[in-house]
Amino acid sequence: AQRVTQPEKLLSVFKGAPVELKCNYSYSGSPELFWYVQYSRQRLQLLLRHISRESIKGFTADLNKGETSFHLKKPFAQEEDSAMYYCALSGRNNAGGTSYGKLTFGQGTILTVHP
Amino acid sequence: NAGVTQTPKFQVLKTGQSMTLQCAQDMNHEYMSWYRQDPGMGLRLIHYSVGAGITDQGEVPNGYNVSRSTTEDFPLRLLSAAPSQTSVYFCASSTSRGRNSPLHFGNGTRLTVT
Q1: How far apart are CA B91 and CA B93, in angstroms?
Q2: Could you say which of A25, A33, A86, A114 would form a disulfide bridge with A70 (CB–CB 3.0 to 4.6 Å)?
Q3: Nearest CA distance, A46 vs chain B (angstrom)
Q4: Chain mean position to CA B58
């Protein structure tokens, strides 16, 4: 079974401070991991995916298979980063085939960046 | 493109009533899914479809039915609403069967069952 854990329901930082949103996963195979974000009054959208190794809006996330983690980091938080963040995992189905985009989501972390 | 469109935005039901949440996408995506969002639980997969005529259960399918008669539409039916189904429901679609394909979400339907 696959599982995603985000241990922090709420995270508050001040503008300009570093921020790290934690994500740990449990999966027996080779996972694909994503971060999704939901800003106030907007729909849930993809922020970044580990396979792309990209930095989006100053955020980065590194897959650490040894620690089974995919923490989201930003060196200097901005007020516009305040949002709900979800870590998500895509694995394989029971037959070993592609899971067709079925994602398992963590519980979510509400990030608040204070001025 | 409108993307993924969900209707209604809000709905209040009484226990035992039935209703259908509508979801349509205009991106010719093969894959569509329904999630429910509950505080402290994240998003949980209810049902999904990999193409017209093909549906399967997700993590929390009980009390819900789906069908996929066209590529564009993927309605979610509540057969007999219960207070435990009070939640925010999201429909999502994806462009291909690849694991790395991002999901495109609708704006959600906030359902309250009294």
Answers
A1: 7
A2: A33
A3: 7
A4: 11
Confidence of residue A79 (pLDDT cuts 50, 70, 90): very high
Task: Give the position of tokens 């792309």.
Answer: A52
Which of A45, A70, A46, A49 is closest to B100 using CA atoms?
A49
Q: Write down the H helix ranges in chain A.
A: none
Backbone phi, then psi, for A79, in 5-degree steps? -60, -35
Contacts of A90 in chain B (CB under 8 A): 99-100
Residue A76 has pLDDT above 80, yes or no: yes
Residues 6+ apart with CB under 8 A from A102: A90, A91, A93, B33, B45, B48, B58
Q: What is the pLDDT of residues B49-92, one digit of tens each?
A: 988 999 999 999 999 999 999 999 999 999 999 999 999 999 99
Q: State residue B83 phi and psi, 5-degree precision.
A: -55, -30
- Point out the residue among A36, A46, A101 whose CB comes nearest to the CB of B99: A101
pLDDT over 80 (residue B101): no
Quick check: B44 pLDDT over 80? yes
B4 contacts: CB under 8 Å, gap ≥ 6: A43, B23, B24, B25, B27, B91, B92, B93, B104, B105, B106
Residues B7-21: what's their mean pLDDT?
Answer: 97
> Which residues of chain A make contact with B50, given a CB cutoff of 8 A?
100
In this predicted structure, the answer to whether residue A98 has a pLDDT above a threshold of 60 is: no
